[in-house]
Amino acid sequence: MSKLTKQQFRQTYKAHRATLTTENIDEASLAIANNALKLQIWEGTYYHLFLSISEKKEVDTQYLLHILQGRDKSVVVSKSDFNTLEMAHFLLQENTILLHSKYGIPEPKDGIELLPKQIDVVFVPLLAFDIKGNRLGYGKGFYDRFLEKCRKDTILVGLSLFEAEDKLPQDPNDVPLDYCITPKKIYTF
Prior knowledge:
Layout: H1 6-18, H2 22-36, E1 46-48, H3 62-70, E2 74-81, E3 86-91, E4 98-100, E5 106-108, E6 113-114, E7 121-124, E8 128-129, E9 135-136, H4 142-149, E10 155-159, E11 179-181, E12 186-188
Parallel strand pairs: 1-2, 1-7, 7-10, 10-11
Antiparallel strand pairs: 2-3, 3-6, 4-5, 8-9, 11-12
C-alpha cells in the first residue's frame, strides 16, 4: 500500500468534511466542547481559540467560547498576515470588532495584542491528526510557526471532527499536540 502525501490527506479530509451537514457539525462540536470539560486544562488564564470558518465545515468553536467565558477565562484570537505567514494574537473582548478576511476567516480588527509566550492553552484547528499527536493543517504553516513561539508548557489541544489516523507524514517543523478532542473521545499524547 502506498503512503499518502500531506496533500492527499488534505484532499481526503476536505472531501470527508464536504459530506457533513450543518446538523452533523453542530452535534459533533457540542460533543467536542463537552469532552473538553473532562481535560485538566482549566487552571490557565489565556486560552487561544480559533474562530471557525463555517464554509470550510470546521469544528464550531462557539460552544468552547461559551465555556471559556463562563469560566472567566481570557480568550485570545488571531489575525493572519498572508504576506508574512505569521499571526498576531488579540484579547477577545465585548467591544472587539470581528471582520472576515478575504479568506473568510473571522478576525479581530484590532485590540490588545498578546505574545505567544503569554498563552496557557491553544485550541488548534486541523484537518487530520494521528495517534502520536501529529496534526495536519491547511498547509501554510501558520499554526506551526505560532506554536513554536509558545512556552514549552503551553497545552496544545487539537479539535477534530474525525478520529485519529495511524500515521501522518511529518516535517521537522511540525509541532505535535498534547491532546486531541473528537466527538467520541479524548486522545492524550
